[in-house]
Write a structure and sequence with these properties.
By secondary structure, the chain is α/β, with parallel strands linked by helices. Helix content is about 35%, strand content about 20%. A seven-stranded mixed β-sheet has the order 6-5-4-3-2-1-21. A six-stranded mixed β-sheet has the order 7-8-9-10-11-20, covered by helices on one side.
């Protein structure tokens, strides 16, 4: 038995992918896209090269692009097996892969116009919409908390991770020659107490634990404090008649912010003003959320019993088309625009930043993790000028980082999750984190539990 780190290793946060091998079977846990970092494009190739056809199955922790974005590459190399995920993850994976394939095709189309003018050969997208559709037909639903066979000698059990709709941690039961090993993959864990979704659940038995470490070196600002800060920014911008731009992850963050704005208007903190959800993907994600109330926490259920979000947020405008998006430029403040991509690496938010970053009355609210090298990270780090669509833009807008809205568990919650399983003394492998955060988390795990975590590099093989 062995596991090969094919993503999210060596201090890399994105690209999550692990190959689990026994004498009988080969299973991938996640198959994510590398994002943000310099050279990430070169890493985005089929994770198993030309040997994908010999893969038995894939299991998915959740549907974010850095966990599912390379799945269509498996179709390119002959994989026809099942991909197991929760029902909500299946719906979200369809949404995210279709959007990814569309963006890549559009980007290559623009790039090839330049190539043609320069007499250069045409480029190809990483994968096409047709290849995304092919791989989506292989998704198979699984229940929560019930081991299911996924390959010869391998069963998988999916538990709530509290990170996004449908997200899970996965325990694999590996049977080989009369020996069984239990391997747990935390996936991405959500913070305890965040609204809408249930809190994470923890396994109690494992021989090996792969634990994410994105925020292994710090905690987020308390959620209540973050909400108060968000309200103050909204009030200030309302008084200034300014625009608020929120680079928004279409799944999770858009729904959370919509809920908070509905609550602000319900409480009459400010007079309702125009709110734009400028993302076809986020619009559809919100519909998927509405179809899965069984995954809501008690507070969300109670909030919905007291009133209607759609009534509280009557000023919300869904900007589905490009013309709808362009029309936002003509809307005076106060208004708030939620648009993707969440790391400002692509999408409609780039157009809004280009039109408004130079204006001191603009507020930009960063509400999620920004990978190294992304435009969002540059704004967080205080860049005075940025380049958008080959144009230099002065950054005079006020940039706010609200870490308390993160969908990732902070250090304290990571340690709480691990603390439940620590008494059985599993082997600990820290991935999905930059080197600073995972080194800090490793130190605390050693101090508290007497275990020395492994910090593997990309491509490293771990023998079980």
């Amino acid at each position: 038995m062995k596991i090969t780190i094919l993503g999210a290793g060596g201090g890399e946060v994105t690209g999550s992918c692990y190959l689990v091998e026994t004498q009988q079977a080969r299973v991938l846990v996640d198959c994510g896209l590398f994002q943000g970092t310099e050279g990430a494009g070169g890493l985005n190739r089929p994770p198993l090269g030309s040997s994908s056809a010999r893969l038995d199955a894939v299991v998915l922790t959740h549907a974010h692009l850095d966990h599912v974005g390379r799945l269509p590459l498996l179709a390119q190399t002959g994989f026809t097996g099942p991909i197991f995920a929760t029902p909500a993850t299946i719906e979200m994976t369809g949404l995210i892969l279709r959007d990814s394939a569309k963006i890549q095709s559009q980007d290559v189309e623009r790039q090839n116009r330049r190539h043609q003018r320069a007499g250069e050969p045409p480029a190809k997208p990483l994968y096409t919409p047709a290849e995304a559709e092919t791989i989506l037909q292989q998704l198979k639903p699984v229940p929560y908390d019930e081991p299911v066979p996924v390959a010869p000698g391998i069963r998988a059990c999916f538990a709530e991770a509290g990170h996004m709709l449908g997200s899970t941690s996965i325990k694999l039961f590996l049977d080989e020659a009369g020996t069984q090993r239990k391997v747990v993959f935390s996936g991405d864990l959500g913070p305890k107490g965040a609204p809408i979704l249930r809190d994470f659940e923890t396994f109690t038995q494992a021989d090996v634990v792969f634990l994410e470490s994105t925020y292994g070196d710090r905690d987020h600002q308390p959620f209540a404090d973050t909400v108060a800060q968000f309200i103050e920014i909204v009030k200030q911008s309302f008084e200034q008649k300014g625009k608020i731009l929120v680079p928004t992850f279409a799944v999770g963050r858009a729904q959370l912010l919509s809920l908070l704005l509905a609550s602000i208007f319900r409480q009459k903190i400010v007079v309702p003003f125009p709110v734009f959800l400028d993302s076809p993907m986020a619009i559809e994600a919100s519909r998927i959320y509405a179809r899965h109330p069984e995954l809501y926490d008690e507070e969300m259920v109670a909030y919905l019993k007291e009133g209607s979000i759609s009534r509280d947020l009557a000023t919300l405008k869904m900007s589905a088309t490009a013309d709808d998006s362009k029309a936002i430029n003509n809307c005076p403040g106060p208004c708030l625009v939620m648009a993707g991509a969440g790391m400002c690496t692509a999408g409609r938010i780039l157009h809004h930043l280009r039109h408004n970053l130079w204006n001191p009355q603009t507020h930009v609210i960063i509400v999620g993790y920004q990978a190294c090298g992304s435009l969002g990270r540059m704004l967080v780090d205080g860049a005075k000028k940025v380049t958008i669509f080959w144009e230099t833009i002065a950054v005079k807008a006020r940039v706010h980082t609200l870490g308390g809205f993160s969908a990732h568990a902070g250090q304290t919650d990571l340690l709480k999750w691990f603390g439940v399983i620590a008494p059985v003394k599993p082997r600990v492998i820290l991935t999905h984190g930059e080197n600073g955060p995972r080194t800090a988390l490793a130190k605390l795990i050693t101090e508290r539990h007497g275990l020395k975590p492994l910090l593997p590099g990309l491509g490293e093989v771990i023998e079980l």
